[in-house]
Amino acid sequence: MKNTIKVERAKKNWTQADLAKHIGISRQGLNSIETGKFIPSTLLALRMAKVFNTTVEVLFQLDDADEV
Amino acid sequence: MLFPRALTSSQIAIIVDFLSIILDIMECLLIFALIKQFKIMEKSKTNLNAQSVIYALIHGATYLPVVWLLKHHVFSQPVSLAIAVVPVVTFCIFIFKYIKAFSTMDEVKQRVQFEAVVIGFALTALLMIILFLLSLCDISNQGWFGYAQLVCYCWLFYFVGWIISRRKYGV
């Protein structure tokens, strides 16, 4: 699964720590999500989409390998 | 008269009732104060994480001296039992605090802890199976693989799992 968290974060000029604080997780946790090592829950994905004022589909997309 | 006259049974009953009401009120106040203190402690997630680590250290600090004491001194059975219960109680408190801390962690940390516990449990179970099967073949070394050592291996395996999981998620 790929994501555009870094891009959305850059648009808002936020650091990882800023975003982590907004969605209520640790900075290390956010780094893990951003680098694709951890797939967040629906709740966290929705929270992220809300703070970026966008949709989950924009933030997260399926990889070719993830497609059925 | 310097001394009060003897109280009748009805007066004693009233006094006992009065004292029991006061005790009930004090008990309620104590419970209320404890709940309030507990809620204050609950507010801080970092505090809860630190508390679980502190209680793990307290458990360690009680477990090792108790093992030493029971190994090197002879006590009567009730006293030995009373001493042996101490690290059990501290371990139960630690587990309670750990579960409380777990519920306040973010999902990445929860996953790390979960995998650490799973790896720790699986490796400990594997070790116990191997030791049991070896004991059936009359191969055993109580000096290295006794009950006391198994506790240490369990912790060791948990930390192995923790390190593996942390590296996996880059936390």
Salient structural properties:
heterodimer; A: 68 residues; mainly alpha; 434 Repressor (Amino-terminal Domain); two-stranded antiparallel ribbon; 56% helix; globular; B: 171 residues; 2 domains
Outline the structure in words.
The complex is a heterodimer of chains A (68) and B (171). Chain A has 68 residues and is mainly α. Chain A has a single domain (2-62), classed as Orthogonal Bundle (434 Repressor (Amino-terminal Domain)). In chain A, 56% of the residues lie in helices and 6% in strands. Chain A contains 5 helices and 2 strands; from the N terminus they run βαααααβ. Chain A has a two-stranded antiparallel sheet. In chain A, helix 2 (16-23) packs across helix 3. With 171 residues, chain B is mostly helical. Chain B has 2 domains: 1-104; 106-171. Chain B is built from 6 helices and no strands. The longest helix of chain B is centred in the N-terminal third of the chain and has 35 residues, at 9-43. The radius of gyration of chain B is 25 Å and the shape is flat. Classes of the chains: A mainly alpha (68), B mainly alpha (171).
Layout of helices and strands:
The complex is a heterodimer of chains A (68) and B (171).
Chain A: E1 2-3, H1 5-12, H2 16-23, H3 27-34, H4 42-51, H5 56-59, E2 60-61
Antiparallel strand pairs in A: 1-2
Chain B: H1 9-43, H2 45-72, H3 77-104, H4 107-136, H5 142-145, H6 147-169
